Amino acid sequence: MIIKCKLKLILKPGKATPTPPIAPILGQYGLNLMNFCNKFNNLTKNINVEFIHVKIIVFQNLNYEIILGSESLSNVIKKIINVEKFSKKPGIEHIIINNFNFINIISKNRFLYEKKKISSIRKMILGTFYSLGIKYE
Fold this sequence. Notes:
Elements: E1 3-11, H1 22-27, H2 33-43, E2 52-59, E3 64-71, H3 73-81, E4 95-97, H4 99-109, H5 118-132, E5 134-136
Helix pairs in contact: 3-4
């Protein structure tokens, strides 16, 4: 099969509806929105996270394949450090966390990502901390 396009979305599991933001993205490729929403909701009905990453591969004959990813790193951090909102000014205002929370985040995310080395995962988490306005001690 010839691949027409690859799409990446972040959606709520089990709550897809044929309305924006899904409708404009998938509609421009000619996909049946109701079929997609039903298929996605059936795949994710037992997943209990806020948002997940979804990859959609659309083929030339308008068939598609849904690949479910993991929860976003920022949502995992938000749960572990019990914060509702992150800093609005990341370079100026900071949220300070301790080293125990940092180790906890690394241990939970070690097997969720493609990176195998702990040092690579540590760098990814530190970059996310920096962009969210978090410092750890």
